What we know:
The protein is mainly β. The chain contains 1 helix and 12 strands, in the order E-E-E-E-E-E-E-E-E-E-E-E-H. The protein has one helix spanning 150-157, and strands spanning 6-8, 13-19, 24-31, 43-44, 50-51, 54-57, 65-70, 80-87, 100-105, 111-115, 125-134, 137-147. The strands form 2 sheets. A 6-stranded antiparallel sheet has the order 1-12-11-8-3-4. Strands 5-6-7-2-9-10 form a 6-stranded antiparallel sheet, with no helix packed on it.
Amino acid sequence: MTPGSNIPLPTARVTVDVAAPVRLDVSGLLLTADGKVRSDDDFIFYNQPAGPGVTYRSGGGSAPDAITIDTTAVPPGIEKIVVTASPDAQGQTFQGIEPTATIRSADDNAVLATFTPPSLSSETALVIVEVYLRNGAWKARAVGQGYANGLAGIATDFGVTVEEPAAPAQPVAPAQPAAPAQPVAPP
């Protein structure tokens, strides 16, 4: 596939795995017509591996992480599932890393399409593929949209609440000892 191209899905259950020469964090977001999640429960990833019609599978470092979508179990009102990827190493970009998404039938593992986004550089996260509903039929589109602010940028754009890590406590200067009381001279 090339960026922006799409294919009809001949099966109701598909798996999108994303492989790269480095370990990636892969996730899926269930989106409504306005392009937002209904709640944080629609963000499927390693800490929340299952949602309505969408599951996450870890590759354990030896195989690609994957998102499986059962279009028959996707709730009404969900029109798109985006599959995202980001390098597992903090601050690493996609410069020199060519992730490849493979869309497979989840039933027989047959390859339906592959997509490798071209010309990546400072991106730290990608929307790599989307599975979407159009005129009653499910399709897949190659996206390759990059973000320089990591998975948090993607999540925020799609309406997921991202908790910022607590700011480190700032050291407080020790209190100065009070000046000794001066005796008051008698009148």
